[in-house]
Amino acid sequence: MSFRAIQLSKTDAGFQAALASLDDSSLPAGDVRVAISHSTLNFKDGLAITNRSPVVRLWPMVAGIDGAGTVLESSHPDWQPGDRVILNGWGVGETHWGCLAQQASLKGDWLVRLPEALSPRAAMSIGTAGYTAMLSVLALEQQGLRPGDGEVLVTGASGGVGSVATAILAHLGYRVVASTGKAGEAAFLTALGAAEVIDRQTLSEPGKPLQKERWAAVVDCVGSHTLANACAQTRYGGVVTACGLAQGMDFPASVAPFILRAVRLIGIDSVMAPRAAREQAWARLARDLPADKLALITAAEIGLDEVIAMAGELMAGRVRGRVVVDVNR
Hints:
16 strands; Quinone Oxidoreductase, Chain A, domain 1; Rossmann fold; 329 residues; 30% helix; 10 helices; alpha/beta
């Protein structure tokens, strides 16, 4: 039986990304076979499909680090045919065939049950970006942060993680200050619930090790000088989560905020997070991300035949928000 998929190939003739018809006998080993309903186009998918970065480790590869759908077959004890599931990360689309396809063969331990309140389309509008945002919010809560504690800074706020974090935190009652380099996105961020929008340049240049205290907490999606300055401006006992590297992987900071102000820096990983953390994040996303805000964050819904062109648009910076892929369209 054949299915359609975005297949990436690299041979002596060069790299190719194509919409291919594949036989289900070619699927990789896995104990759960899923009929994918919806996927999404993430930045990492864009890098892989346009061959901009060495994301793919095994060739040929089916792209797509996120997927939602229904179990077709399972030899895993936790899953039965008909179960609705979500897949995020675990190297899928990099070392294991991914979910920009009508079928996927996956490991049952990688899957999370789709909350009743979410459709597969809504889950893929959230995607890894939104799931990472919720992991960041949960980390802040686990460190004791509450809405009355003060302002929360979100860097890279117009991006996938930042926009969802802004919407969730505002819904929970926090005063959110959104940092972005895109002045035209101020109205969008205010609509998501940001109380104030600031220019990212106020954070992106080299700064002093300790600066005027302002933030009770930070969700940083940017890294480099932005993360260093955010830590330097965090109030005594505050907490910073780091989940991105849009500005760079470096961290040009000092230990001063950590030993003089007891600032806590928490790393957020979405790719290999254990299932219990994933389940908690998805349950909270179903509850604490308002549908109207998710609609604002969703840029477009496309079919598989539009993915390759959209990946080019994404990498050119011409797409704002989440792109949902209906793989059967």
